[in-house]
Amino acid sequence: MIINIVSLVSLEVATATSTILLGALALHCLWKSRQYCHLPQPPPSSFVFGHLFDTWARLAHWGTRGDYPQPFLSWTEQYGGVIYLRQFLEHAVLVTDPVALQHILVANGTNYPRQPIAMDYTRDVVLGESLISVDGKKHDVYRKYLNPMFAVSKLKTFVKIFNEQTQLVCQTVLDPACDTNAPVNLSNMLTKMMLSITGLTVLGYDFNKSPTALEAYEQSMLPITPLVLVGTFTIPGFLSFPIPSLVKRRNAQAALKKILMLVIHDKLAAPNSDQPKDLLDMILPHASTDEAIPHTLTFMTAGHDTTSSTLAFVFSTLASYPQVVAAIRAEYEKITAVYGSLGSWEALAELEYTHAVIQETLRLNAVAFSTVQRVSLANDNVAMSNGSSVFIPKGTTVVISIAAMHRNSKYWTNPTDFIPERFVDGTPEWNADLALRGGKPHVFHFMPFSMGSKNCIGQRFAMAAAQLIVATLVSIYDFKPTDLRQEFSGVSLRPVNVEMTVRRVGAPSS
């Protein structure tokens, strides 16, 4: 009897304590939200969780619903360039106004470091501290010694690898597919090709020749479900939870780290007396083995995943635009007539229209659809395009939707249409967009690689590789239309399904 009474009292105390704590949290949340009453707010789907399931959970369903980049685009067009969102206990602003972005990313960028939980995620992805997982002075130090690795003089030495791997894919995958009329999973092909390219350029290692390494790398990617996405970006330490898919991922990460350590050990044991051949050769003089692994994985992940996703979108889109394909082929023939091939940096620099095709693809399908979230260190007044300003309180999470900005009808004519000419200076399409923006260029309206001191260090690498691959493959093959729904891979946006049939240019249709 006494035990029952004690148990009942304990239960009542626990219930009362929980009620008080939840009440206190609710009151704190309501008090905090008053600081944002000056900002427009879309109605949240949940009284308790606010917009949490409208953002992270919804993007996990883009691949099945086909509604990318919602709800961010509709919110932006209805409520404006700075919007208040409550993601459970987190207070955030969604920013797409170009003048506000210039302030946040450049003019007052030191007041907006990356969000700690977002950096925890990137540290987990790259197994430690690197350019994408640190902030402040350490970021500046890393950027200073990594910048020379992506200088044009270094990138020129990689063009040969881009070309060789592209030709290898033609010989081993696309030519046989043409002969047999068998469908090709272009997404898998491009992923493996870019993994091989980044492996060779970053650390002199061909992942495609090592099935174990390839499997470890692929399984180290984040499994995408609403639970995983919401948990990863709202619950500290979530990625260490004993969830089967996360346990499998951690085991793959351990195997991948072991492989990278062996590669680094071999390099250190047999130093090359010649000039550095890959990026790891340039990193090792500045870093220990443990420090070099995160830098290596940063370039591997960013270089292969985002570029292969971009290429998959390019080929998926081009299948429906024969006039664009014809223009790419004409440009290819003109340039190769002068240079003999695309195997030089100078030849790649002439691919103006192909470059525009890739830019337009990135506008419509921003593989980095949002920058890493920021958080304000101090109260700030942020200028807006219309001449007004908005107050952003200290501790506010800043969400930047590149995808919504890229499709905003305020800045782009016919924003959902694929029009590469809008990125060719002086064309009617270029001028139409320019007029819509009041004569302002597309800087801070088009940000596929972000902006400011934390922009993508490897963007010239990615664009050069993509230009060579697109121009070469389009000059040789025709690709059949496919599914263009988008999904989030955990690192970037990618097409859901890119299984296509290919045939050589000029070959009769079957």
TrEMBL record:
SUPFAM superfamilies: Cytochrome P450 (SSF48264). Its cofactor is heme. Keywords: Heme, Iron, Membrane, Metal-binding, Monooxygenase, Oxidoreductase, Transmembrane, Transmembrane helix. GO terms for molecular function: heme binding; iron ion binding; monooxygenase activity; oxidoreductase activity, acting on paired donors, with incorporation or reduction of molecular oxygen. Pfam families: p450. The chain crosses the membrane at residues 6-31. InterPro entries: Cyt_P450, Cyt_P450_CS, Cyt_P450_E_grp-I, Cyt_P450_sf, Cytochrome_P450_Monoox. The keyword Nucleus does not apply. It comes from the Eukaryota. Heme binds at C456. PANTHER family: CYTOCHROME P450, CYTOCHROME P450 FAMILY 4. Belongs to the cytochrome P450 family. This is Cytochrome P450. It comes from Aphanomyces euteiches.
